[in-house]
Amino acid sequence: MSVNQRPGLLRALTERNALWLAVPMLAIIVGLVVIGRSAVTTPTPATAQADKPAAAADTAAPAAGFTPDQKQAIEQIIKSYLVTNPEILVDAQTALEEKMEKAQTEKLKAAITENAAAIYREPNASVAGNPAGDITVVEFFDYNCGYCKRGLHDVIKLVETDPKVRVVFKELPILSKGSEEASRVALAARMQGKYWEIHKAMLETKGQLNEATGLLLAEKLGLDMAKLKQDMASPEVEAEVKKSEDLAKKMGVNGTPHFLVGDRAIPGAPEDLYDQLAKHVAELRKQGCAYC
């Protein structure tokens, strides 16, 4: 699987303690140090400072720092606070996660709105389901991605159980040279009206996909092999692969599979993928979607 997806909080705390705890720990330490600084530092009254000679004032400047005893006292305060209230680290991390998730969601919505035509209304898109469907689901995928293979059956189920849904596939061959070769086979097969058939056949095939395996599957499906090979090398196919890769970069999609439904995203292939897809489709169908 090629998915850039943050792990859950408990898993992250278990597997990457130092990295995840660093942020809230740092925030707490800074806050406590500021409090400690104000508590242990006694400012010189303005009137008294004004009466001091310049040399004396310069000598007194370092007093704003901490003495060794003061530093030790602050460190003890911090240690005692964290030991007594360890849950503050989890609370801080949870708040940070929520903030980051919100920011990411807003960024995604803006990117989808800006690129809606390329995502949902590409004239020559690779489509499964109802070409004139009322709601479109988009999948960025790689033919050599194990999780794309696992998610295929959920996509098939969605297409077979919802006669009004339209599924658009965006080639994102990022795992190997063989992935790009397989994408070229599929896009060339689309020119013969066999995209969905070759798409399913390749994702259902075990092992690595490349040009050789793709051509064998195309031959079994009865495609015109001479035309297929010619179309694989065509500027149209080259442009299609490049277009999908550029769109993925704009969207911040750097892993497969990655599903878009309206302004919502499902990274990866969770166990309940079909349920999530069906839920989003039903909600958008009820609410209305201007571009999907």
Secondary structure layout plus pairing:
Layout: H1 9-15, H2 17-40, H3 46-51, H4 54-60, H5 68-84, H6 87-114, H7 116-120, E1 126-129, E2 135-141, H8 146-161, E3 165-171, H9 177-190, H10 195-203, H11 211-220, H12 225-232, H13 235-251, E4 258-261, E5 264-267, H14 273-287
Parallel strand pairs: 2-3
Antiparallel strand pairs: 1-3, 2-4, 4-5
What would you say this structure looks like, in words?
There is one protein chain. This protein is an alpha+beta fold and 292 residues long. It folds into two domains: 9-111, no CATH class; 116-287, Glutaredoxin, CATH 3.40.30. It is built from 14 helices and five strands. It has helices spanning 9-15, 17-40, 46-51, 54-60, 68-84, 87-114, 116-120, 146-161, 177-190, 195-203, 211-220, 225-232, 235-251, 273-287; strands at 126-129, 135-141, 165-171, 258-261, 264-267. It has a five-stranded mixed β-sheet, sandwiched between helices. Helix 2 (17-40) crosses helix 5 (68-84) and helix 8 crosses helix 14. Mean pLDDT is 82; it is low at 3-23 and 40-63.
